[in-house]
Amino acid sequence: MHKFDYTQLVPSYIQAFEAYYPSKPDPELMRLYGVDHLHRLNNNENALGPPPEVAQVVEGFTPMAVPVYPNGDCFDLRQSLAERFGKDPEQFLVGNGSCEVIASVIKAFCEKGDNIITADKTFAVYEWVAEFSGFEARLIPLKDNGFDPQAMLDAMDRHTKILFVCNPNNPTGTYWDRSTMTGFLDAVDNRAVVVIDEAYCEYVENDDFPDGMALVEQYPNVVTFRTFSKMYALASLRIGYLCANPEMVGVIRRTHIVYSVNTLAQRAAAAALTNDGSFIRATRKMVREAKALLCPLFDELELTHVCGQGNYLMVKVPVSDTLMYRKLMTQGIMVRTMTGFRFPNWIRISLVQQPIMEAFCRVFRPVIEEIQGR
Ligand SMILES: Cc1ncc(COP(=O)(O)O)c(C=O)c1O
To answer: What is the pTM of this model?
Structure first.
C-alpha cells in the first residue's frame, strides 16, 4: 500500500494552528490527583444549578422524545426570545452554544484576505475560528485591562469585516459603558459588523452598562451574542444565540448549521426565560459574597488581582500558573490557568457558594504563604 501524505492536503493556516485540548473528565482528574472530591472553579459555571423552571423540564423529558429530531431552527424558543425582548423571532439565531454562532458570523462575512479585530486577552474563540478558517485575527492589546476602542478603530482597514467586543470581558471583567460603546459604534459608522458578546451581561449590576439588545435596534451593523451557559446554568446542554436586525440574521442563517440544538436544550432555555428574576438575584448575591471573601484575602497576601463584572476573578500568583493549578488540584480545587489567555502566572477563579469559596481560601492561603516563605 502506498503511503498517504495527507499533509499536502492541509491548508497552511491549519498546519500552523495548534489544537486546544479541553481538560479531562472529573473522575479521571480525581484519579490522577488522588482526591475524592473536586470543586470546579475553572469554567465560570453557575454552581447554583439552573432555575427551578428548568428542573421541571429536565425531569419531564421522556425517552420517547429522544428519537424525534429537534425543531431545526428553534422555532418555539425564538418566539419566547422575541416575547421576552420585545422583538421579531426572525431577529434570533440559536446555536449549539454561542461558540457556534461565532463561527456562523465569521463564515457569513469573511472571505480570503479579510480580517477580524478583537483584543489580545479575551475569549479566544473569535481568534481561533478566524485563524483556522484562514482569516487574519488582529489582536489589540488591552488598555487598563479593558478593550481599547481607539486602537481597535485604528486597526481597521477595508478588509476588516467584524469587530468582536466582549462586554463584560472574560477574563478581566471590564466593560465599556454606554457612552464608550455608542461612541465606538458611531466611529465604526457601518464599515464593518460589530459583535457584542454579552455572555456575562446578566451578572452586571451597574446602570451604565449598555444593553446590546437595544443597540441592535439603533445600529444595523450590531450583532449581540448571549448564552444560556453562564447565568442560566445550562452549560451541558450547549445553547446560545445571537440577535441582530432580520436582514443580517437572514444572511448569517445561510452559514448556520440547522438541527444543531437539541430538543431538551431548546425547552430548558425557554423555561429559563420564564423565571421571574429571583434566580438572577440569588446568583448575583452569591457572586457578591464570593468577591467579598476573596478580594480581602488577596489584599492580605499582597497578590495583584483583577475583580470586575462576571462570576469570576483573576489573581496573579508567585509561581507558574500550571504549578499553582497542580498544587490546588491535589487538594480538590480546579481553577483555570491563564497562560493560554496570555496572562502567564495568573489564575482565574469562578465565584460560587460561600462554603466552597471558604474551602478555596483554606487551601490557597497556606500554598501562597509557603511560597512566600511566610
Ligand atoms: C465571553 C464568552 N463568550 C462565549 C462563550 C461561549 O459560551 P457557550 O458556547 O457555552 O454559549 C463563553 C464561554 O466561556 C465566554 O466566556
So the answer is: 0.97
